[in-house]
Amino acid sequence: MTSKIALDGVTDTKTAENISVDPLHNVGRKANRGFTVAMGAKAEPQFERNENRANSEPIVSSKRAEYKISEADAQKLKEAQEALSTRLKRGSVFLEHKNGQKGAVREDVLKEFWKTNTTVHVHGQHTEGQAPAEERRIEYFGLNPDKYLDELKFVFSCIKGCKGRGDTTPNQDNFSVTVFNDGWTVHCVMDGHGPNGHFVSTRTVQALPYYLFNYPDFPNDMEGALREAFELTNKDLLGHSLENNYDVQASGCTAAVCVQSPCKTQLWMGWCGDSRLVIGYETEKGLKYETRDHKPELPEERERIEKNGGEVRTFRYEDDWTINRIFVRGQDYPGLCMSRSFGDECVKACGVSAVPEVTGPIKLDLDKNPFLLLASDGVWEFLDSEWVVKAICKKLPVEGPAKVVHKLSKESRRRWKQEEGDYCDDITCLMVSYGHNR
Predict the structure, then answer these.
(1) Which of 15, 103, 195, 228 is the most buried (most CB within 10 A)?
(2) Residues 394 and 285: beta-carbon distance below 8 Å
(3) Is residue 60 domain-resident?
(4) Is residue 59 in some structural domain?
């Protein structure tokens, strides 16, 4: 039985036990229409890490583009990063591991971890020079990728957006799926921002499952495991940026993480920022659960930021579209539009936190063919959760997960074209379909 309660003009839907819908999901979003079809190019199973800095971002006019920092403020941030580097050289360490290693976990350690402790790990490569609408290249460990949908029930698409004509900047979205040997599964979607957001998202989708698994009481204390994994991933990122010479003062990423039990009937969610997770049932055709975006207009988020020396400014456009951005008080940087994230070191002291919101366990009824969607803000900017879930419910039984995910990606790009012309955000969708094989 479903009941609906009006809350500040937004409908709050209360559903079955352990499944709930956030009434604030549509704040700042628009009503939606349409749904069209496209299949993306098949990702290539190869990996080469490139630690060079990104190409310069093109000049864009979109009101939804990232806030541009002046050269003078960029110099201040560079000096702050150099001060952190000096601390590292003087012996300041951010992490100390069980094996005695200090600093960010090495990539050879990560690869050995996937080899010995997981049956599957997949994440997006860091890639320079992608064309708009091109799928990200993928690195695979373990199970043959052709069996992902049949055996693990997941499908993904990670497509580069377009920042204007001649755009060659990297895709800043990334994702990972990690299946531990005992069947516990971690799904991650990260959405990078700032000059080095692509490095941030690529690092965090790999590091977070590692720190989650190494929590002493995983999986018995899932909330504690998620909270510590987020904390250590943020510390790891800071050390990794210093060791690899990229700046995270005004670069970061959002995170949406789901941990799935081996029996697939229980989920735990941890997230920060405005990447979002939703749950639906094919048989009930409505939104059953969604996470709440961490935006500076939320009263509790704004209060924390202003209490700690941050400042929230509202930008209003001719069509009455508004956006709230976070700045260091009295300064004109960084102009961040989410209140929680990895990285963004220049506003960590101002209340922009990497502390996740955590919920769970959320119980699934497998007889109702549930599905889980994790997606970056490139999807949610013009498509609300209720509409997306209803569209998936309609198409999934007929067309299957792979076509539905690429269909959703194309519809998201169409909406960006309709609203913003040449500017389009990166778009990532990761869907887990718990129903029968298709």
Answers:
(1) 195
(2) yes
(3) no
(4) no
Q: What share of the chain is helix, strand, coil (3-state, %, to 5)?
A: 30, 25, 40
How many helices (H) and strands (E) the chain has is answered by 8, 18
Residue 175, both tokens: 């994702």
Q: What are phi and psi of 306, to 5 degrees?
A: -70, -35
pTM for this structure? 0.84
Separation of alpha carbons 336 and 251, rounded Å: 9
Domain annotation covers residue 438: no
Question: What is the enclosing helix (H) or strand (E) of 186?
Answer: strand 185-193
Question: How would you write the pLDDT of the chain (438 residues) with one tens digit per residue?
Answer: 333 222 233 333 333 344 544 444 344 344 333 443 333 333 332 323 333 333 334 444 566 677 788 888 788 888 888 877 776 655 555 666 666 667 799 999 999 999 999 999 999 998 888 899 999 999 999 988 888 878 888 999 999 999 877 788 899 999 999 999 999 999 999 999 999 999 999 999 999 999 999 999 999 999 999 999 999 999 999 999 998 999 999 999 999 999 999 999 999 999 999 999 999 999 998 999 999 999 999 999 999 999 999 999 999 887 788 999 999 999 999 999 999 999 999 999 999 999 999 999 999 999 999 999 999 999 999 999 999 999 999 999 999 999 999 999 999 999 999 999 989 999 999 999 997 544
Per-position DSSP letters for 17-61, written without gaps between them = TT-B--TTTTTT-----------PPPPPB------SPPPPPPP--
CA atoms of 139 and 44, how far apart (whole Å): 8
* Backbone phi and psi for residue 336, each to the nearest 5 degrees, phi listed first: -80, 135
Contact 157, 410 (CB under 8 A): no
CATH number at residue 33: 3.60.40.10
Do 410 and 36 touch, CB atoms closer than 8 A?
Answer: yes
Query: Of 200, 214, 204, nearest to 257 (Cα)?
Result: 204
> Which residues make beta-bridge pairs with 343?
252
Sign of CA dihedral 224, 225, 228, 230: negative
Which candidate, 142, 249, 253, places its Cα nearest to that of 204? 253
User: For residue 357, what are the β-bridge partners?
Assistant: 271
Q: Which domain holds residue 185?
A: 3-40+77-431
Residue 19: inside a domain: yes
Total number of domains in the chain: 1
Amino acid making up residue 102:
K
Tokens of 122: 């997949």
